[in-house]
Amino acid sequence: MRGATQAKWAACAVAVALTATACGGGGGGGSGIVGSSWGDPQNPLEPANTNEVQGGKVLDMIVRGLKRYDPKTGEAKDMIAESIVTKDSQNFTVKIKDGWKFSNGEKVTAKSFVDAWNYGAHLKNNQKNSYFFGYIEGYDKVHPEKGDATADTLSGLKAVDERTFTVKLTQKFSTWPDTLGYPAFAPLPKAFFDNRDAWLAKPVGNGPYTVKSYQKGSRMELRKWDGYSGDDKAENGGVDLKVYTDNNSAYTDLMAGNLDLVDDVPASQLKNVKSDLGDRYINTPAGIIQTLAFPFYDSKWNKAGMDKVRRGLSMAINREQITDTIFQKTRTPAKDWTSPVLGDDGGYSDSVCGDACTYDAARAKKLVKDGGGIPGGTLRVSYNSDTGSHKEWVDAVCNSINRALGNDKACVGNPIGTFADYRSKASQQKLDGAWRAGWQMDYPLIQNFLAPVYYTDAPSNDGKYSSEEFDKLVDRANAETDTAKAVATFRDAEKVLAKDMAAIPLWYQNGSAGYSDRVSDVALNQFSVPVYEKIKAD
Amino acid sequence: MGRYVARRLLQMIPVFIGTTLLIFLMVNALPGDPVKALWGDKPPDPAQVAQIKHDRGLDLPLWEQYLHYMKGLFQGDFGNTIAGNRPILDEITQAFPVSMRLAAMAWTFELVVGITLGVIAGVRRGRIIDTTVTFFTLIVISVPIFVFGLGFQLIFGNELGWVKPTVQDSESFQQLMLPALVLGLVGLAYVARLTRTSIKENRSADYIRTAVAKGLPRRRIISRHLLRNSLIPVVTYLGTDIGALMGGAVITEGIFNVSGVGNLLYLGISRREGAVIVGIVTVLVIVYLLASLLVDLLYAVLDPRIRYA
What we know:
Chain A has 538 residues and is α+β, with helices and mostly antiparallel strands. Chain A has helices spanning 2-19, 53-62, 110-121, 139-142, 190-194, 196-201, 247-256, 273-277, 299-302, 306-315, 319-325, 343-346, 361-370, 390-405, 419-427, 446-454, 468-479, 483-500; strands spanning 33-38, 67-69, 76-78, 81-86, 91-96, 157-161, 164-168, 209-215, 219-224, 238-243, 261-262, 281-293, 331-333, 379-384, 411-416, 434-440, 503-515, 519-520, 536-537. Chain A has 18 helices and 19 strands.
């Protein structure tokens, strides 16, 4: 009897251990396969629903759109598009190349785009990137700000024949074709609309890779697709994406040879990364700028002279020192309100902020005094304290300001417990003083760095900055048919920001990655996504 | 016996409702809006926020949300995630087997090694082996778990290369060995100490002296008489530890990249997926309750003096 009880116990433990099997999964990557770190994408992997890097990695491998941004120059180059023509910057005719296929054999047609865009725009599909389609006529019907949709499809979107479709925008937007490199504009096969759940479990696209297996929350295996129609064929046999919740574990695995590519080097390892990896560590600018935003809705910050105070504060921040010591050079001191990934032709300027972005304690002190001093005597810089270790740099910025102004109480950090709380406070204009702000580009155009953030009542204009002069220049630039002229006009608009010091540019964020000696030709694109198809693996 | 079990099972209902309600309220009391946070730094789309809230029933009053949730729960529906509208049951059934495997290994390790060490130390009280066991278990209890986790990972994974530093395949016993060892370490120390103290106390009991006087072999005295009567506090600890091992492995699972319950819980909290957190806690509460019932029933097996009417 007693013996039986004990045996039962042992049997139970073994049974639990043995029957507790669910998902399969092989070992590390084989020959020609790149093992890469991944994070579990929060949203389903639909092109118009992916707004962060982790889902972006997959989409960048399995889908191709009309255009694709050159990973080096950021230029929007034709991919599936044969031509996109317009006479008035508002009506566009898109012609696609012949011969493109999805990996399930379906042809990529004009309808694949029109259906995908209609799906992405419609309110009932809850796609996070819906606003990308906001420039297309009829968007307010399929995606009203309040209430139910009154139309099923975008009225400005029409398939003409198998390889042609037309797009009508609600306003003139000359550089609109250059926005089409974002995965949100990718085509979708009929298989997606027939059975969405099956597609999400194993996405089918038209890119250089196909999904071999996908276990949500743990790993995805992608393999080179030999039938791929484009000329950017994969240089390796495939990519195994492996989910890590802690990027320190990923780094440990890279060191132990279990992983080939880590695209987010943990902050705690930045000190050793040079000695650990040597030149197998890359650190390149991404399309992200970080700024300090101000409450223009508060009359104290909107009165005459405050531009001087903001300029003075900007000059009191020692950007070089902070990016060196706190960020180990994974940030680059900002010199404008855009990003170096745009390139000089795209509108980046290293002189538009000029002296105002250069540390000068004496002038900073004078400017703040001339402008009437900091409202309330103390500048509170709000940030969320749960993610992203913002405390370190906010404290460093405040120390720098306090030292420059010779006043220990000039600036203090104001931590807010959670990201969700911080965001709702910022978007409801409930913050006083400055707050950490930033902009991650949707597409590498100067338009995207300026219009959504500083245009009057623009969706991301949390500080409610408003300048008639700026708005006029943005309108004019959008209507300009010649790209070079449009960029020049946007630059003029940016000069208005510099004059008003609408937000203090702090630094550009870099993307960082480390890789093993098994792989070569690793690079990150402007969205900090590794350019997987170019990686060579032994 | 049957009536006792029935009574205990009935008692579980209020405990179950109380804990789920408490967690539900706590998750909802966190500041900020999880739906709006889906958009990150970008401005949320008010129409979609309203629609997602409506779809997931997040626009209802809190008590109604709770009722809906409980109603679904009793029908085996754990609700859907806010972000992907994915059934939470899928995520739970994916994560639990992994954690169960890890917990079973850690638990077996605690049981076998812990009791063995405890018996040796208790029987050879005051000798060098006793001092050594006491000393090392004290160290294990006082050092935080992540120190062992990272330390073992560095030594056995990176330096010596005996095992892979992280778990590549959650079905491989060999790869789960190291995380299981780390996870079971603290429990092992407690089990060893509890066994040792209990054995030490019972050694001078009358029935042991009787057994010795009868001339029974030493091995039999220890295993049949001494150990069995000393196991009650140890069994109590081991029972409650099953739940703790499954739900409390957040740090260990993070270090060794095991995609189990701990990881899921961590993601749920950082993404403010209230239903995921409540769902996991619900399952863990059931595990705890059943384990403690089992422990109580085992008392009667171990000690014939205990009877359940």
